[in-house]
Design a protein that fits this description.
about 325 residues; alpha/beta
Amino acid sequence: MAALDGPGVKLGILAWPQYTDWPSLRTVGTTVDELGFDSLWTWDHLYPIFGDPHGPIFEGYMTLAGWSSVTRRVTLGLLVGANPFRNPALVAKMVTTLDHLSGGRAVLGIGGAWFELEHREFGIDFGKSVGERLDWLDEAVAIIRGMLDGTRPSGRRRYAARQVVNEPPPLQKHLPILIGGGGERKTLRTVARFADIWNVGGTVEEVRHKDAVLRRWCEDVGRNSDEIERSLLPGVVVVRGSEAEAREYVQQIHRTNRGWDGEPELVGTPDQIAACLAPYLPLGFHNVLFDFPPPFDQETLQRLAVEVRPQLASALV
């Protein structure tokens, strides 16, 4: 049974596409949809980023396409797309196609990329520095936004697009762009210029600081900061009736994601999870996107939808 939407609260699931199979990914997608979550995401990586990097993983856009045929209401996107992987004009065409496949539920998630190993071994240009990749990102998002809006954009330096046409246009009148990251010199400037949704993680103090920097960039580029939806990526979540039960399940996550011995960030009861997230709500972060590794835990999904979400909604009232 689908959970009731909480006023002003959105919840999304970032299902890891590593160390799993397509039937499992398909099932987690349909479950997320049926439980009333607002959004469904996956990574854009070519190698696993937790555990042994040379293990199994599925490609991001193809996973979204598969989900588009088995879901009905959740929005679909990459959290976040690795900009160096693809020509941005092609990305605009791909996300437009996804919008049609899903009946108008696509979100364009994108970021500068960070995992050098997959770029090197796949032969993808990683650039000379983080700063160079973020310059590429800024130029890429300008092209993508223009194509989605039908303005026939051209590239500046990195990309050779010339008055490129995107037909048919997306079903959505304004297909949203999500940009992930908190880099203060370049990433947040690109967010201020182009993003409809900004995604970031960190402590309450870190997120408050990043938000203040974004607001300054918005003033600099002449944009109302409140036009940009804030979304929080708090980390891996496991919910049970007791913290001890939740920590027992963490061992299954470690075994499945071979070699990963990290500690999930949100482990405990519904009350504990809601208490951890509540301090972000006054900062405007009402859209929470949870990391969700295999084996995909049905109980956690159910408790997030039915028990955690109402508590967060009540905290906003």
